[in-house]
Write a structure and sequence with these properties.
The protein is built from ten helices and eleven strands. By secondary structure, it is α/β, with parallel strands linked by helices. It has a single domain, classed as 3-Layer(aba) Sandwich (Protocatechuate 4,5-dioxygenase, Chain B), CATH 3.40.830. The strands form two sheets. Strands 6-3-8-2-9-1-11-10 form an eight-stranded mixed sheet, with helices on both faces. A three-stranded mixed sheet has the order 5-4-7. α5 runs parallel beside α10. The protein is globular, with a radius of gyration of 19 Å.
């Protein structure tokens, strides 16, 4: 029986932890896996390790893309007690198997440790969660999960320092559960998304602005039409991105490699000094999703994982993002 005040159960056996961070760009679903065999070989190896670890709980750090959350109310941090995935491009729809008691206990643990967060008993998520859950779990409801949204899309975004701190607190919570806990970070690396997901002050017209604020309840764009337009754009671009005739903006291998070196170092606090405006200028608005990686790795390290291993990286890929894969575990999987 979980004690919600401190996150420690009646049997205080040490938890073990596995963490993996991977991209969630819709092209990983829309395109043939044969276009990127080395990426999928490394990805499948991570999935095999995840399944060998056989987690009892999965904590997933994900992001939204103006599908479920809008500027009418945009939380920096949101933990779901109940959640369902939308049928968006690159995603997999259906109800998530949220471990509601543990999600509430995690939220209470954060509040008691001075983190101000939002919670939801009717959380909706898009491919920023469901893509990774499907690929690792086989079905998005196959394991009990705690979904944690970090705003990586729109101003003001939480600092990398705060994401690390929240991750560490969630890792400390997880360490007290006496369970095998897998942690997934979903998103990244360098890529530009502002042409699809603008800020309030850069929206090209009032019609778009109305949608990103209200999510289809006001104005001429409905949720169905928004999602249909995104689907059409992604399907149209899947081929040109794959064959190199269309190159997505702000792919920056030097920036990616600096980030990957920092996140796989013994001390990742160097990322505390990375400023949002700087890395978005260098690596695009989509690079804001490194928040999910920072929180996931910080959580795993706080729960006892070792320094992450870089399993794969390439920037000139058919999926249109700086594609990185990292993982860590404690104890070693199979050990």
């Amino acid at each position: 029986m979980l004690n919600a005040s401190n996150g420690v159960g009646a049997s205080p056996a040490a938890s073990s932890v596995f963490v993996a961070c991977v991209p969630h760009v819709p092209f990983v679903k829309l395109q043939d896996r044969k276009l990127l065999p080395d990426f999928w070989h490394a990805y499948d190896a991570l999935v095999a390790q995840f399944r060998a670890f056989d987690p009892e709980l999965v904590i997933v750090f994900g992001a939204d893309h103006y599908d479920a959350l809008h500027l009418k109310l945009m939380p920096s941090v949101l933990i779901g007690m109940e959640a369902e995935a939308m049928a968006d491009t690159g995603g997999y729809p259906g109800k998530l198997n949220v471990a509601s008691d543990l999600a509430l206990a995690c939220a209470e643990y954060l509040v008691e440790h001075d983190f101000d967060i939002a919670t939801s008993y009717a959380m909706s998520v898009d491919h920023g969660f469901s893509n990774v859950l499907h690929n690792f779990l086989g079905a998005i409801d196959a394991r009990p999960i705690i979904p944690v949204h970090l705003n990586a899309l729109c101003h003001p975004r939480p600092t990398l320092r705060r994401c690390r701190q929240i991750g560490e607190a969630i890792g400390q919570f997880a360490a007290g559960l006496g369970k095998r806990v897998a942690i997934l970070g979903s998103g990244g690396l360098s890529h530009e998304t502002s042409m699809i997901f603008p800020q309030f002050d850069t929206a090209p017209n009032q019609t778009i602005r109305d949608f990103i604020v209200h999510g289809g309840t006001h104005g001429d764009i409905t949720m169905d039409s928004w999602m249909g337009d995104i689907q059409a754009v992604m399907v149209e671009l899947a081929g040109p991105v794959a064959d190199g005739s269309h190159v997505t903006g702000k792919l920056n291998p030097d920036w990616d490699k600096r980030f990957l070196a920092a996140i796989t170092s013994e001390d990742m606090t160097a990322l505390d000094d990375w400023h949002d405006a700087d890395f978005i200028e260098e690596a695009g608005s989509g690079a804001g999703e490194i928040r999910q990686w920072v929180a996931a790795v910080a959580a795993a390290r706080a729960a006892g994982a070792g320094v992450p291993t870089l399993d794969y990286y390439a920037h000139d890929t058919p999926i249109g993002v700086g594609a990185g894969l990292i993982h860590a575990s404690s104890p070693p999987v199979g050990g």
